[in-house]
Structures are given as structure tokens and as C-alpha cells.
């Protein structure tokens, strides 16, 4: 088939992936390509400011006429958060863009208590996706307002009403939820950042639930279930027989787990089985010291639900380590054969260390593990042995070390990405990872501590990761430390020089005053390696900031000579340091104290991209995009 014979829709979709200059060139290739590639140029419109909206609304402007002529080609409209849209302007947009498929209205764009009274949502009957942030929306009952809007959107497949803040939760009743589905028969994806209301007459609730009409197309549901949990689970089991994703259940210790034996039995007796297609569940636990919430997991397990993804957030004060161990044993281990992604997020201040890996069973399918648990301890070699398919490991506010077990020849592991935020590890652990995980290409250590012993004859910390070829390496605000000796042995010493070394480097400098290389014991460090001079500002024992400077070749030469003299014993007194008082690549305190300089050499197979910039805020989205490429 010739390129000119490709169908219109295929050419149009190809154009969506091109940049504007390429789209313009494609329009000139031939007559067949002109219209589909012109359409692709109009596929997405970003409404970025009030001025642009005013020109669209003013019939006397060329902008109004321009969009009125070509707006039928637009399929997706994104309204940015820095503009304010009232109902009259929504009506203008409906007239400009009659064939819209996707509408995204960002934070606090909508306004006015009469929203929905002027605009005619039947004009957007072609919409298949509606994503609206209702955080700043002034309306007494948002659920009722959007019920009226939904009457004109029979083809809608994805509906997302989000609230990122707000003092009062928006409540949705069973009748309102039923009306949503009656108006939107094609719905497959539903996110309502609302709280389902408690059932008023609990005795009749089950009878009402049994008679609901199933919404067989819905596969993704997000509701903030807070009250009458088991009754709402009964409703979900009947209403959504093909449900695959359920977010968010809030499990409270209010005794309701013991109050509804009839509902528990009802869920267990359904045929076909309840939630037979459920793969992903998000749960929040609050103030639940009696562990009654574990009953939910047992119920899912006995229903033979093959969960693949679990996100469990624990928001409560922690006094008993048994609570944490029960989460691993009664939740995670129950689904060890099928679970692929497990995110365990704890927001509490538990000061005692606890071992996450002690009760961990064998997980043959787990590929993504995220642990945010204060003072948790992870034995990395044990974790890799039990999670043989793990690709991504992310730990926050935790320690990950090696166990005391010794392995003669540990099996190779396929770990691809390691992320440590506010965590603690050792140089030996990183070397073990390099030797065992030969496909480890991405590592991010932010505000973390990497400790290691220096060699007997110098203040060097060596980390040999020669087996590792980094595509992306981030060491933002992380500290390499070695134990201090003597009176202030309670404080670790920071390494002020970080050398990123790659074996491809081969250049060395020679010292004209000596017959040997000026590097001596530093012969594996070369001018082609990247040297950083790092200073630290300590706030507390657990808080600090760092400032790195990339060193010039001249600075490197001076520092290498300084280190050589230091390790030979020629510069360890304060008087011997006077000549370096004006040298900016040494810490000020070093010139006035008898503390030796320390440095770390991180030797890698190769590094394609690295970052040591200070003040880095971890970007989850960036690393998730990398993970999606695996």
C-alpha cells in the first residue's frame, strides 16, 4: 500500500505525534495528506489565559471568526488553572468546538452557583472523557449539578470529578450514583472525589442493593468510601460485576466490621463470585489499633480474588510493631502468588526499628515494590531472594542493608531501578547490587546517607559498581560518610570530594618533581573522571543541605596532591594547612581543625546521565515514565 492510500483516520492519528513544523511539511506532500494533517494540527487546544478566552467570546475579533471556522476539527480542549470560566463562556466554547471528545478543566477554573444553567451540554454529546477539578467550585450540591450535565453526555466513557482540597467533603447518595449510571450507560472509568453517604435505613439497605441494575461496562471506580463499608461493598459487588480497579476504601476502627455478618455472608454467596475480575485496590487505614480491617483481606482471599496491585496507606499513631507485621502477613502474603505491585505507605512516627523482610514470603510475580515506613529495616539480599522478578524498588525513610547471611554465588537478579529517599544504606550494599543486579540502569538517592569504611592507608571510601551501566544516576543532597574515631566518634565524617569514575577514562597527569605518577595510590582516578567538591550545612543529625561544585582540572591536580601529602602524614597539622587557606576547594573547618579530608570514589561501568544538584524535589512522574519503558 502506498503512503497516499492510507486511510484518513490513520493519517490523522500519525499527525498527532508530530511537532508543528513536521505537520506543516506533511500537509504539502500531496492532496491526500493535506486535510488529515491539517486536522491533526487542530487536534488539541490549550486555553491558557483570560485574554485568549475574551478574544474567543468577542464576535468582533478575528480570533472568534478563526475558531468558529476551524473549531470543528478540535478533539481535545484543555483549560488551564489560571483562568476563570463561567457558564456563558462554556456555551461559547460549545459553539466553537462542537466535535469535542475530551474536555479537561483544571484547578479552580469553574465558577458561579448557576453553573450548567446557560450552557447546553447536548452540544457536546460527542464527549467521551470529562475531567473536571471542582476544588474551588461554589455550588451547594456538586453531585446534583453534574447529574443535570450528564443528561446531555450519553457517550461519556470516562468521568473524573476531582477535589484536591476543601474543608467539607462532597457527599453522594445511592440514588445519585444510580442516576449517574442511568444517564451515562457507556461509562467505563468513574472517579468521584466524593464520600458515599451512610445508609439511612440499614435494615432495608441490602434489599435495595439486590435490586440495582448492573453497570457491566464499568471497570475503574474511585470513591472515598468512609461509612457503611460492607454495605457499599455489597453494592459494588452487584453493580459492577466486571470491576478491575477499586479506589479508595477507608478502613476505620468503628466496630462496623463486626456489625454486618449478613452482608459478609451475602458477598460470599454471590454467583458468579463477587469481584472475580478485581486486580487493583487502594486502601487507607485510620485509627485501627484492633486490626479489624484485616478481615477485609481475608474476605477477598476466600473469594479467590487474584489481586495484582495493592496500595495501602496507614494514617494513624503506631504503638505496636505487631500491627506492622500483621500488614505483611495478613495482607501482602495472602496474595503472594499473584501480586505484581505493592505500595505500603505509612504516615506515622514509630521510633523503633522493625524488619520489613522478616515475615516476607516468596513473591514470584512482584515487579514494583514501594515502601514508605519510618525506621523500617530492609535486608536487601533477602528481599531479592524472595522477590525474584522485582524490577523497581523504592524506599522512603528506611534503611536497606545486607543481612548477616553469606552467599557464595548469589543468583543474578533483574532489578532495573532503585530509588531511595531520606534513606540510609552502605557502600557494601551498593557493591552487592552492582554485582548481583547487572541490569540496574537507574538509581536515585535523594537526601540519603551512604556510609562506608575507608582503607587503612588513606581517607578514601571506594564503591566498586563496575558491573553497572547507569542510564540515569541521581545523588541529590546525599552524604557519603565514614565513622569518626576518637573523642567525637559519635559523629560521622562527611566525604567532601565525590569522584564519579568510569573505566573508559585513561588520562593521567605526571608530577615534574617525581619520577612516578602524581596520583600514586590514586592511579585509578583520572582527569577524565568527574570531580565534585561538596560542602554540607547540618541542621540536625537527620537534616542537612549540600552544595556541590564541579572541579576544574587545575583544582583536581591541587586536591590530588593535597590528599597524597595528607595520607603520607605531611599535612595533618594546622600549620601544614596554612598554604591552602585561600584555596576554595577545601572546607573552611578543615583549615582550622586536625580533621583529615575524606573522599569517595564511585566507580561505574558507565554513566550516561547524572545529577548532583542540590535542593532536588523528587519527581514521581519522571521516574514512572522511565518505568513504563521497561
Chain oligomer state: single chain
Number of helices: 18
Number of strands: 29
Outline? globular
Q: How much beta, percentage-wise?
A: 25-35%
Major sheet details: 18 strands, parallel
Secondary structural class: alpha/beta
Which spans have pLDDT < 50 for at least 5 consecutive residues?
Answer: 486-490, 505-523
Mean pLDDT: 82
Helical content class: 25-40%
Report the radius of gyration as a whole number of Å. 31 Å
Distance between the termini: 33 Å
Protein name: F-box domain-containing protein
Domain F-box: 1-45
Organism: Phycomyces blakesleeanus
Give a brief description.
27% of the residues lie in helices and 25% in strands.
Characterization of this structure:
The chain is an alpha/beta fold. It has an 18-stranded parallel β-sheet that branches. It is globular. The chain starts with 7 loop residues before the first helix and ends with a helix. Helix 1 crosses helix 3 and helix 7 runs parallel beside helix 8 (174-183).
Amino acid at each position: 500500500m502506498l503512503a497516499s492510500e492510507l486511510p484518513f483516520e490513520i493519517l490523522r492519528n500519525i499527525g498527532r505525534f508530530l511537532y508543528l513544523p513536521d505537520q506543516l511539511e506533511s500537509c504539502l506532500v500531496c492532496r491526500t495528506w493535506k486535510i488529515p494533517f491539517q486536522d491533526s494540527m487542530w487536534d488539541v487546544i490549550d486555553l491558557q489565559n483570560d485574554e485568549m478566552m475574551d478574544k474567543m467570546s468577542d464576535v468582533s475579533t478575528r480570533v472568534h471568526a478563526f475558531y468558529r471556522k476551524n473549531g470543528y476539527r478540535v478533539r481535545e480542549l484543555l483549560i488551564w488553572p489560571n483562568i476563570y470560566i463561567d457558564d456563558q463562556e462554556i456555551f461559547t466554547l460549545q459553539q466553537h468546538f462542537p466535535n469535542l471528545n475530551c474536555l479537561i478543566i483544571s484547578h479552580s477554573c469553574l465558577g458561579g452557583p448557576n453553573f450548567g444553567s446557560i450552557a447546553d451540554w447536548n452540544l457536546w454529546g460527542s464527549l467521551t472523557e470529562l475531567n473536571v477539578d471542582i476544588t474551588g467550585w461554589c455550588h451547594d450540591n456538586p453531585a446534583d449539578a453534574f447529574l443535570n450535565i450528564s443528561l446531555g453526555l450519553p457517550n461519556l466513557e470516562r468521568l473524573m470529578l476531582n477535589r484536591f482540597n476543601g474543608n467539607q467533603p462532597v457527599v453522594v447518595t445511592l440514588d445519585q450514583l444510580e442516576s449517574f449510571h442511568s444517564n451515562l450507560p457507556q461509562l467505563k472509568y468513574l472517579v468521584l472525589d466524593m464520600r458515599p453517604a451512610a445508609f439511612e435505613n440499614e435494615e432495608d439497605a441490602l434489599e435495595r442493593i439486590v435490586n440495582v441494575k448492573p453497570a457491566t461496562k464499568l471497570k475503574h471506580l474511585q470513591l472515598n468510601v468512609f461509612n457503611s463499608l460492607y454495605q457499599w461493598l455489597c453494592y459494588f459487588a452487584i453493580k459492577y460485576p466486571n470491576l478491575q480497579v477499586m479506589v479508595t476504601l477507608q478502613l476505620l476502627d468503628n466496630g462496623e466490621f463486626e456489625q454486618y455478618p449478613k452482608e459478609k455472608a451475602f458477598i460470599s454467596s454471590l454467583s458468579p463470585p463477587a469481584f472475580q475480575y478485581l486486580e487493583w485496590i487502594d486502601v487507607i487505614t485510620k485509627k485501627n489499633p484492633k486490626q479489624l480491617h484485616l478481615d477485609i483481606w481475608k474476605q477477598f482471599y476466600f473469594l479467590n480474588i487474584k489481586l495484582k496491585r495493592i496500595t495501602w496507606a496507614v494514617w494513624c499513631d503506631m504503638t505496636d510493631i505487631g500491627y506492622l507485621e500483621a500488614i505483611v502477613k495478613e495482607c501482602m502474603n495472602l496474595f503472594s502468588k499473584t501480586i505484581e505491585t505493592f505500595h505500603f505507605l505509612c504516615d506515622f512516627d514509630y521510633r523503633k526499628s522493625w524488619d520489613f523482610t522478616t515475615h516476607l514470603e516468596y513473591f514470584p510475580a512482584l515487579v514494583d515494590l514501594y515502601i514508605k515506613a519510618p525506621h523500617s529495616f530492609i535486608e536487601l539480599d533477602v528481599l531479592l531472594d524472595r522477590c525474584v522478578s522485582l524490577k523497581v524498588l523504592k524506599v522512603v525513610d528506611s534503611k536497606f542493608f545486607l543481612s548477616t547471611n553469606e552467599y557464595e554465588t548469589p543468583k543474578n537478579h533483574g532489578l532495573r531501578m532503585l530509588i531511595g529517599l531520606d534513606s540510609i544504606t552502605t557502600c557494601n550494599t551498593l557493591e552487592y547490587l552492582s554485582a548481583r543486579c547487572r541490569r540496574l540502569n537507574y538509581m536515585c538517592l535523594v537526601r540519603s546517607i551512604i556510609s562506608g569504611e575507608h582503607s587503612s592507608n588513606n581517607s578514601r571510601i571506594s564503591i566498586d559498581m563496575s558491573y553497572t551501566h547507569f542510564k540515569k544516576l541521581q545523588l541529590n543532597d546525599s552524604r557519603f560518610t565514614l565513622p569518626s574515631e576518637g573523642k567525637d566518634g559519635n559523629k560521622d565524617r562527611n566525604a567532601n570530594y565525590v569522584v564519579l569514575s568510569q573505566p573508559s577514562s585513561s588520562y593521567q597527569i605526571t608530577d615534574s618533581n617525581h619520577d612516578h605518577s602524581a596520583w600514586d595510590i590514586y592511579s585509578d582516578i583520572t582527569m577524565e573522571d568527574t570531580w565534585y567538591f561538596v560542602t554540607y550545612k547540618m541542621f540536625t543529625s537527620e537534616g542537612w543541605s549540600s552544595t556541590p561544585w564541579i572541579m576544574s582540572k587545575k583544582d583536581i591536580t591541587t586536591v590530588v596532591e593535597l590528599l597524597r601529602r595528607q595520607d603520607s602524614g605531611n599535612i595533618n597539622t594546622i600549620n601544614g594547612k596554612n598554604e591552602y587557606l585561600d584555596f576554595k576547594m577545601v572546607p573552611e573547618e578543615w583549615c582550622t581543625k586536625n580533621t583529615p579530608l575524606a573522599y569517595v570514589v564511585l566507580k561505574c561501568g558507565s554513566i550516561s546521565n547524572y545529577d548532583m544538584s542540590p535542593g532536588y524535589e523528587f519527581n514521581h512522574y519522571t521516574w514512572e515514565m522511565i518505568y513504563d519503558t521497561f
